[in-house]
């Protein structure tokens, strides 16, 4: 399958993450082995300037066939729906018009990153640029292409979310599409591939012992759970970051940072500082998605009362308290 990659309004971070893929075989080699041929990419293709523009014109006209359209970056509809806040260089036309024309010729359309899926960082604040996603405007269906859009292959836009995306999420999605093993039933309610969105960032979290005993960090660099005081949304964010480490080695939480739920619509405006946890009567307003809230509150009280001294003390330190020594066995050796 032939892949055309278009860069809309964004930082290019998803491409950078893709190129950092930790697999021993390079990402382009992995895609090629799966039968995916990259015919155009703003950062990776040899063509540039007028030559690259001619490729896009040919693709939009149908004389350069392609199967998969990947779009990275938000759709800027402003001012007043004209799209002229983002013109494709040298073409004299808004990027949103190019996206519409190319999407109409694609067998599959993939939104690469949360900006392309929902609007993301571009849509924060007053959203003066009228940024939106390909088929969502925030959490609401619609976006640039409309809620009823279907690519020629029958799928809605496939939203590979993340800010940036995990390299494996996009590679595995493209490989499944190329193998003919990807259907609408493989998407969740926000059109994200379920193979990664059916998990929570919380699953596999290296701080889970602290979470279980509700032994919380109080400041950055503390080892404890980041949920209660430092804004971590790992129990609410759909992604497998901790069971599938980024580039094979890490995740935000493994690096000591709170999860900001970057795979979710509206993550860019949580209504509070990212590293603070909003609370009501001392209870975080954002509670885990995988259990009833009343259960969590009751279990939290029980857990805190049973917290081992080692775990409680380690939670507010930057290095763990040593484990107790093993008890010596009595009697015959």
Explain what this protein looks like in three dimensions:
- This protein has 10 helices and 13 strands.
- It is an alpha/beta fold and 333 residues long.
- The model has no long low-confidence stretch (mean pLDDT 92).
Topology:
Elements: E1 2-7, H1 13-19, H2 27-33, E2 37-40, H3 49-61, E3 68-72, E4 75-76, E5 87-88, E6 93-94, H4 95-103, E7 108-112, H5 114-118, E8 131-132, E9 136-137, E10 140-141, E11 158-160, H6 167-178, H7 194-197, H8 208-212, E12 279-280, E13 283-284, H9 293-305, H10 309-315
Parallel strand pairs: 1-2, 1-3, 3-7, 7-11
Antiparallel strand pairs: 4-8, 5-6, 9-10, 12-13
Helix pairs in contact: 1-6
CATH architecture of the largest domain: 3-Layer(aba) Sandwich
The percent of residues in helical segments reads 10-25%
Query: What's the alpha carbon Rg, rounded to whole Å?
Result: 23 Å
Q: Give the oligomeric state of the chains in this entry, treating copies of one chain as homo and distinct chains as hetero.
A: single chain
Mean pLDDT: 92
SSE series: EHHEHEEEEHEHEEEEHHHEEHH
What is the CATH class designation of the largest domain? Alpha Beta
Give a quick account of the main beta sheet: strands, pairing sense, barrel closure: 5 strands, parallel
Strand portion: 5-15%
User: Tell me, what's the shape?
Assistant: elongated
- Strand order of the biggest β-sheet: 2-1-3-7-11
């Amino acid at each position: 399958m032939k892949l055309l990659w278009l860069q809309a309004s964004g930082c290019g971070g998803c491409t950078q993450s893709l190129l950092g893929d930790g697999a021993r075989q390079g990402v382009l080699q992995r895609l090629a082995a799966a039968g995916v041929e990259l015919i155009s990419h703003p950062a990776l293709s040899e063509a540039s300037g007028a030559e690259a523009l001619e490729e896009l014109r040919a693709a939009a006209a149908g004389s350069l066939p392609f199967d998969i359209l990947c779009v990275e970056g938000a759709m800027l509809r402003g001012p007043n729906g004209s799209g002229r806040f983002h013109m494709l260089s040298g073409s004299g036309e808004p990027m949103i018009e190019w996206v519409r024309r190319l999407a109409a010729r694609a067998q599959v359309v993939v939104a690469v990153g949360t900006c392309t899926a929902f609007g993301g960082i571009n849509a924060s604040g007053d959203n003066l640029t009228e940024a939106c996603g390909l088929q969502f405007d925030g959490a609401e269906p619609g976006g640039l292409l409309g809620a009823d859009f279907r690519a020629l292959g029958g799928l809605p836009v496939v939203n590979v979310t993340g800010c940036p995306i995990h390299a494996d999420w996009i590679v595995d999605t493209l490989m499944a599409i190329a193998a003919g093993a990807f259907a609408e039933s493989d998407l969740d309610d926000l059109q994200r591939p379920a193979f990664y969105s059916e998990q929570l960032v919380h699953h596999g979290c290296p701080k889970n012992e602290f979470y279980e005993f509700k032994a919380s960090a109080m400041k950055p660099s503390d080892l404890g759970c980041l949920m209660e005081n430092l804004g971590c949304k790992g129990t609410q964010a759909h992604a497998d970051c901790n069971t599938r480490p980024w580039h094979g080695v890490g995740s935000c939480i493994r690096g000591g940072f709170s999860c900001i739920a970057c795979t979710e619509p509206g993550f860019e405006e949580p209504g509070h500082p990212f590293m603070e946890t909003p609370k009501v009567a001392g209870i975080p307003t954002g509670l885990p998605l995988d259990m009833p809230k009343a259960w969590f509150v009751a279990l939290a009280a029980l857990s805190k009362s049973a917290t081992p001294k080692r775990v409680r003390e380690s939670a507010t330190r930057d290095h763990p308290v040593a484990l107790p020594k093993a008890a010596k066995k009595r009697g015959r050796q």
